[in-house]
Amino acid sequence: MPSVDIHSSTPAASVAAPPDQPRGLRANPWLTLIAVAFGLFMVGLDGSVVSIANPEIGRDLGASTADLQWVTNSYLLALAAALILGGKLGDRFGRRTFYLVGVAGFAVASVAIGLSGSITGVIAFRAVQGFFGALLMPNTLGLLRAVFPPRKFGMAVGIWAMVSSVSTALGPIVGGLLVQHVDWESVFFINAPIAVAALVFSALVLPQSRNTAARGERFDLAGVVLLAAGLLAVVFGVVKGETWGWTSGGTLGAIGAGVLVLVAFGLYESRVAAAPLLPTRLFRNPALTIGTVITALNFFVLLGVIFFVMLYLQNVRGFSPVEAGVRTLPLSLASVVASPLGAALTERFGPRFTMPLGMALQAVACFVMLGWAADSSYALMWPPFIALGLGVGMVMSSSSDAIVGNAPVRDGGVAGGLQATALQVGGALGTSVLVSLIGSRVGSTLTGELTSAGVPADAAAGLGEAKDAVAMGVAPVPDALPAQLRTAVVEGSHQAFMNGVHTSVLVAGVLCVLGALVAAVGVRRAPGAAAEG
């Protein structure tokens, strides 16, 4: 049976550590959790502050909308393509090593973004940032899997998920304050001091862990190339689907080509590769497989809903980025509470209970949002925010535990990469698909809603060309319009936008119900049941 440098099957307190195992600070799993929390916090904060900084980046650097999309997409593509590779490198050569490399590289790339002075530089260094994030992220879970005994691993993952929720929640507020009172570059420079703290603390307390049995194996370079190419093509097709159209040749071609390459990757890994990059035996565990699917669905709903909620709060309701961030705090705070709660419930009842419960809460949140209007009071907003946050936090901790907790310790980094890849692909799909649904619904109802609001038919038909702006919650009201007509245009445009929102949350809610059913029927093993070797 393959061995690892640090074995998690025996609690540290129950037996003396063998001579080759770490002692002192490096023997404490809770200090390992604190150390990886620094890196996790940095990446989570960066992910949500960038969206706040994008408008100012565009103004300062003269960037087009397409350029700003690539500020996000270049990061996402590099991250998605390299996450499983980052986990495999950690498993093979040392999770501590690649976590520290990821932290340092992420910080250097962040500083380079702020100093670049051009939109081309920002896009390029965002891709570099994504690559180093892919080295960092999976090894946070891989390190936890290696040092925590099974009975405590679920709670460790719950705290891990809570840190991710806190950092994401703080992003819009911190980003808004920095952009408003300093400059957009500061949202990237802030990663430097966090990284320094992470590197110093991690150097003192993180133990090294790796799959020692893999040292003599050839590295699966062909698998790396196939997986990266397949994921790049699929994610590229997904992120461009909104712009190109989901039935366009470019979108279907990119996604189709990516799927074919991923099928080839799966066949190669299962039949040819002597030391596969992603061992297909992992998917024999139903909890791990379904946990991967539910992780993708969880972030499909979360990131898709958050995207149009921020459009609603800022463009329809007129709140500033900071004000909008404060109003979504119930969602983030509920997620913070739900993460350790979900871990505790998973430990007691298993993911077959907590995953369906979390998805059901998200479904309730989506269906309640069907009652939102353009002028809804905040009293109608915060209850679904809380339900969504509780559901997301519960699913995040239970599905992460189901994926990483059911993988052998030797594959902890790969399992962490698999979880993070599912998260990123699901989030990309959610944002693109739900926004596309809003755009489609706006296009079919805008003229009718403008006419119903009192806009003359010929003027309404002309304003129909502004459907892209309306799909972002922006009412097309030229300054020359009379006040009464301006009011009618705003009313009709906002109602068309809400029609799109209702379509999106209906689809998201139905998917959540289906996810709850799949988890309830398909998950049968409790986390931590995997072999430790």
TrEMBL record:
User: Disordered: where is this region?
Assistant: 1-20
Keyword Cell membrane (UniProt): yes
Q: Does the keyword Cell membrane apply?
A: yes
Q: Where is the composition biased (Low complexity)?
A: 8-18
Q: Which SUPFAM superfamilies match?
A: MFS general substrate transporter
Q: What's the protein's topology in the membrane? A: Multi-pass membrane protein
Q: Name one GO biological process term.
A: response to antibiotic
Cellular component, GO annotation: plasma membrane
The source's superkingdom equals Bacteria
Annotated compartments: Cell membrane
- TM regions (residue ranges): 30-53, 68-86, 98-125, 131-148, 160-182, 188-207, 219-239, 245-268, 288-313, 325-345, 357-374, 380-397, 505-523
Tell me which residues make up the Major facilitator superfamily (MFS) profile domain. 32-527
Keywords per UniProt:
Antibiotic resistance, Cell membrane, Membrane, Transmembrane, Transmembrane helix, Transport
Which Gene Ontology molecular function entries are recorded, alphabetically?
transmembrane transporter activity
Q: Which NCBIfam families match?
A: efflux_EmrB
| Name listed for the protein in its UniProt record | MFS transporter
Q: Which organism is it from?
A: Streptomyces galbus
